[in-house]
Structure formats: C-alpha cells, structure tokens
Amino acid sequence: MRNLDWPRFLHAYYANVDAEDLASREPAELAGAALSLLMFAHRRRRTALVRVFNPTLREHGFTSPHTVIEMVNDDMPFLVDSISLALTQRALTLHFWRTPFLR
Which of 52, 16, 14, 59 is nearest to 36 (CA)? Predict the structure, then answer.
C-alpha cells in the first residue's frame, strides 16, 4: 500500500457517493474508512468477506456513531441486496451507502 496513489484511490472509492453525504463527513473519517476496507480486503482469499463492527480510531483508523458493515466480494449483487433487505426488514436505517467497484 506504500505505493498507492491515495488521491486516485479515494476518488475511485467514493465516486458513486452523493456529494452531500461526503460533505457531511470529515476528510479524516472518509480516508480512515477507505483504508479500513482496503486493509480488510487484503485478507480475502477467493471468498466473500463480511464484517460488522463499531469502529475505533485505534483499531480501524476512524470512528463512527453507527455500526459499520463491510463487504468484500466479487461481483455478487445478491449478497449486497440480501444484507440490505435483512436490515430493512428489521427496521434498521442505512446511513451511508457506498458500493465502490475496485479492481
């Protein structure tokens, strides 16, 4: 990750996010969340990964007042849809929905 072009990575990572959602968050929070998912993705070994956690600055590099769900997978839209549906059925609110496609 040392040679990663961070501005380009962050631009691609948040490309599909509404500008209003981005404006309401601190740049350090956005960068920390992106780095957290990138580090999580490096653990993937040909299988989908899903984790649910309450981020801390020490462990994840960012904080959030909300529980975070991270998914790393190949093009598996039904996994994303299934998790979204399960949350909706339980009357849970999605606060910041982002689906980057990184290759």
Answer: 59
